[in-house]
Model the fold of this input.
Amino acid sequence: MASPRYGICRLCGNYDKLTFEHIPPKKAFNNKQILLRTFEKLIAEKSKYREPFYKGLGRYSLCERCNNLTGTWYGSAFVNFIEQGLVYYESVKSNKILTLPYYIRPLNVLKQILMMMLAMQPPNAPTYHRELRRYLLSRTNLQLPSEYKIYLYYFAAGQLRFESGTAKLDVNNGGGSLVLAEVTIPPFGYFVTSTNNKLKPNPVLKQLCDITWFNQYQYNVWTRLHLRIPSKETHFPTPLDYRTFEDMREESEKEKINNEQT
Ligand SMILES: [Zn+2]
Done:
C-alpha cells in the first residue's frame, strides 16, 4: 500500500492526512481510470504527456473529516442533478441550447461545485479563499463572496478538462477572468472564476449558463427550475476555449487572407 499523504486540507486549512477527493463525486460516474492531457502538463512538457488518474478525476486535498462531511452535505444533491442531466444528454448534445426543467436542491448543487473547485487548488489555497471556506464549512451559510461566479454547460464533444488556477486574459477585448478551475466530464462542464474589479469579465462567459444565483435558496430546499444550459465543445485543455472545428477552420482562413494582404 502507498504511504499516507500528509498536507494542508484545502477546506479546514489543518495539516492532516489527506484523502482522495473525487472531483466530481465518485457516484457522479467518476470511478474509472482516466488519462488526461492537461494544460499544465502541456506547457511544462511540451509534449503529448497524459496525466493518469487511477481512481477517476480528483486530488489528495481534503482531510478525512472534511471529505466525509461535505460528501454527506452536498454530494447526493449533486449526483441527483447529474442523473437528470444524463436523461437529457443525448438530445441536448445535438441541439445547441434547450430550456429544460430540473427538480433539484440548488444551494447544495452550487456548494458541491465550489467544493470541487476548492479541492483542486494548490496547498496554499486556504490563505486565499478564507471567505469561501467559511461559506462551505457551514451548510446553511448563504454569504457567498461576490467575487466567485459559477457557470455550467453541457459537454458536446472534445476531451475532458481538469484545470485549475490559470489566469485567462483576453487582451484583444480588454476582458479577463481569473480561472479558479474548470472541470469537464459528461454530462456537464463546470467553470468557476474569481474576478476582481480590475478585470472586465471575459466575453466568452456570456456563452455559458451562470448559476451563481443558486445561492438564493436555503440548504436542502428542493425546487423546480427551468435552465437554459448551452452545449460546448472542448477540443483543447485551455480553459474557456469552446471553439468548434468549424470555428478553427474559419480562423485559419481569415489568417490566411490577412497574411496575403500584408
Ligand atoms: Zn479538513
